[in-house]
Amino acid sequence: MKILHIESGRFLYGGGMQVLYLMEGLARRGVDNLFACPRGAHIAPPARAHARVVEMPMHGDPDFGMVWRLRRLIQHEKPDLVHVHSRRGADLWGGLAAALSGTPCVLSRRVDNPESRAVAAVKYPLYDRVITISEGIREVLRDAGVPRARLACVRSAIAPRPWLRDYDKAGFRAALGLAPNTPVIGMVAQLIERKGHRYLLAALHEVLPRHPGLQVLIFGRGPLEDALRVQIAEQGLAGNVRLMGFADNLPEVLGCLDVVVHPADMEGLGVSLLQASTAAVPILASRVGGIPEAVRDGETGLLVPPGDVGSLAGALNRLLDDPLLRARMGDNGRALMLREFSVDAMCEGNLAIYRDVLSAALPDALADPLM
Predict the structure, then answer these.
(1) pLDDT at 371 over 50
(2) Which listed CATH number (3.40.50.2000, 3.90.550.10, 2.102.10.10, 3.90.420.10) goes with 161-340?
(3) Per-residue model confidence as pLDDT tens digits over 206-241
(4) Contact at 8 Å (CB) between 110 and 269?
(5) In what residue span(s) does the Glycosyltransferase subfamily 4-like N-terminal domain sit (predicted)?
(6) Helix, strand or coil for residue 118?
(7) Hey, what CATH class is 2-157+342-367 in?
């Protein structure tokens, strides 16, 4: 079986990591992976361990030329199936290129942004299956009129080994110039509006009087960086909040946090939440999208209504007040990740969809499922 994967994102965020996990698992199962991505994309070097990589211009939604570049690649390589992994232009142009080439195609949908029925009626018929990473996203697409038979859910996965380690929490704090018992929370997300950084900053005004030594570490990059820096200064939070940038050593530091906070307005599932739970860190997040599938309220963390600053502050105070509660939730979260979010389950789920889509076109080849 030969699969062309298309990922148009430039940075190696959560969705890109899922593509790497999938290609690695498929390669171990004998699948021939071909991978198309933008020139200079951060995902390209690690992808070469599991796929033949083709870098090409990809400029997002306005880049209609992507259709013809991808169509030429499909016609030259003749994959059995095309798997489009991201929205940024590729979810339309990649599907159209596959349709023009007469090649079966599936799409992974990783975000829960609502779409109009008119847009959905144009886009999703291009795909034999739309694979959602959570039940929450599947329901969003159902509401947009996508037929249930065209939808399948395969949850995102976490490769646990990097997060199963003994964390030196005192050493981490010392490196930041902090005392060993300093409470430290973190937010791991792109610096974009829908991730809800503004709610966390607002909630701190109700948390800091009770926990004046609290340190908040914001990991990630994005277009809101300058605005967040200004907000932190204007709100008098510079002594408590640090912008840490993109952390390429996240597995080494995530488990040193006391709580991971994710007050998003919308979220497909949240790979950083899977990582935090695997590192045994309790989570405080919004009850939106697929988050309740990744964070079990009262068991592995606490969920609050989106945009509700008062509830966010109250839940954060509760977690900071109770180290035993945090420890219990952290242990429960790690157990949940190991039980329900394995890479093997994600790879087998996608592979089963490939086989189902190809079964009508390739009945003989599927007698050997790895072709």
Answers:
(1) no
(2) 3.40.50.2000
(3) 999 999 999 999 999 999 999 999 999 999 999 999
(4) yes
(5) 14-154
(6) helix
(7) alpha beta
Alpha helices in 235-365 (DSSP H): 250-253, 271-278, 291-294, 309-321, 323-340, 343-358
Q: Answer yes or no: same fold for 2-157+342-367 and 161-340.
A: yes
For the chain, the domains span 2-157+342-367, 161-340
User: pLDDT tens for residues 238-277?
Assistant: 999 999 998 889 999 999 999 999 999 999 888 899 999 9
Residues in the chain: 371
pLDDT (tens digit per residue) in 111-129: 888 889 998 999 999 999 9
Spatial distance between the Cα atoms of 283 and 186, rounded to a whole number of angstroms: 10
Report how far residue 54's alpha carbon sits from residue 68's, in angstroms, rounded to the nearest whole number. 15
